[in-house]
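[09:14] KT: can someone run the structure on this one? pasting the chain below
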Amino acid sequence: MVLKGFLLSVFLFLFINTACAGRLILGFYGFTVKSDIDMIADSPFQYLMPYGTEGKEEAFIDDFLNYASKKNIKIIFSLKDIYIESRWYPKIKWCPTEDKPDLIKCIVKRFGDHESVHGWYLADEPTLHLGIKKSSKLARNAKAIRRFSSKPIFADDFPIPRGKLWKTLSETSDVFMTHIYPIPEKSLHDVHTAIQELSASYNKPVIAVLQVHGKYQYPFYKRDKNTGRPPTYEEIRVMSYLALIAGAEGIIYYSFSDIKKLPDFDQRWRFLKKLGDELESNYQLINSRETVAKDYRFDKDINIYTLIRHYKDKDYFIGVNPTNSKKLITIFSLHNNFIKKLELQSFDVKIITLKESRNRG
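[09:31] RB: done, structure tokens below
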């Protein structure tokens, strides 16, 4: 019995520490729709968090997961609605539904070893849907998951300080997710701030949940197509890079079911696939921890985000402009005796190689 517990702890450690390691996690929120899997499979996005999975019958789930496995899509299995307070509490026949832990154990025991199940989605905005007084239910459900699975537990809440349950989630989940939907009324700076604050406050991998939908698509926002417009392609690209340079280890966009309803879906989807390839290509560079030359300095606007990274024997400059005005940056290198001027257009991202000057002096 002790050995079994020890082995579970070892496997759990390995799962947690590889949940976001290496390749960038890229995916979408969505629903249990096979046609979505078909489209996402032909893209850089290999992760899907489908709402409502826990409310499906056994044969449906089995068929859906088998299809995802066939298409090499990794599923973050939703268990977020197994709280009696949820209006989507599962009403299924194949598992006992009277006792919440028993329901979770039934689902996790049946599908926990499925190769397409990457992890478990414990909570979605628990600050809103559970509240502090009922936060103990997070621990109860997490314990039920751990009874039969060592795969990582994911949890989403509002950014700090609106999200009130991060401390509780730090004790019950392995990977944090936080959603930032700034368009059109807020600043893109919010993306960087939210990821940076959460990463600095807790020793957990953080995945950014980023907006690709329009707020007008949700009646509770009470917006029209102008006051609730979706983000432009340039804004999506900037938000994505802001998340990564702030420390996000993955991006899950919200949501595939919403963008399918937008009039520019075909063009937007082509853009997102191209962006996904770009982000995946640049992730190792952005995340590089190789020793970088320390003699660079900048003359720049305070609203611009900059990084210097050393990667594969070269120094790179990364600049992100989240504002709607053009910005100029001057890069100085005292060691190599050069000055480089760079122009960032509004909502722009530039990654350039900083070559050594021929004038070493």
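[09:33] KT: thanks! The domain at 2-286 is CATH 3.20.20.80 (TIM Barrel).
[09:34] RB: yep, looked fine to me
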